[in-house]
Amino acid sequence: MLESLDAEGVRDVVALPLLLTRAFHAKADIPAVLAEAPPRLRIRRAEVLGPSPLLLTALERRLYEAGLTPADKSSTGVVLASAGSSDPEAIAVIAAIAREWRHTGWCAVRPAFASASLPRTEQAVLELRALGCARVAVAPYVLAPGFLPDRIARGAADADVLADVLGPSPEVARLLLDRYDAARVPVLAALGA
């Protein structure tokens, strides 16, 4: 792909990782691929998408689309279910997002992971039930359907509400544009634009 860009006369490229945390893919895989780019390409790498208040807004949008209302918020516990990672920084980011989101009025928010980390979605659902939350909702912190979101859905079997993945939401689109713009500004400055 990068070779074809070079062949087409493109010199300035913004690589926009569609990732929600700075885990292995962001730290190792993407830099390795970009390092193999033809030397004539000037590549700026945008930041990963998360964390961002826009993603919290998108998560709430998905919960409301799944049937919750703002009036349900104070009595509903939410499982923030991410793909998971063995990277401690990524796990800490998900835990921090859950803590932050809890302060927006939800009864409780617990992080959960589909792979590589604990707790799993089903464990977090049980924990919220044990806390006495009237309802338990699962909010997948993933961008698209697939194997790990399917695992999250199976773990949400005992929840009252399962939201859809973040997917094509206006908030995700805005965030993509923001990350792109932030990465391309230095390129434009270097070109004198």
TrEMBL record:
The keyword Cell membrane does not apply. It holds the Pfam family CbiX. The keyword Lyase applies. GO terms for molecular function: lyase activity; metal ion binding. Keywords: Lyase, Metal-binding. Coiled coil: none annotated. This is Sirohydrochlorin chelatase. It comes from Streptomyces haneummycinicus.
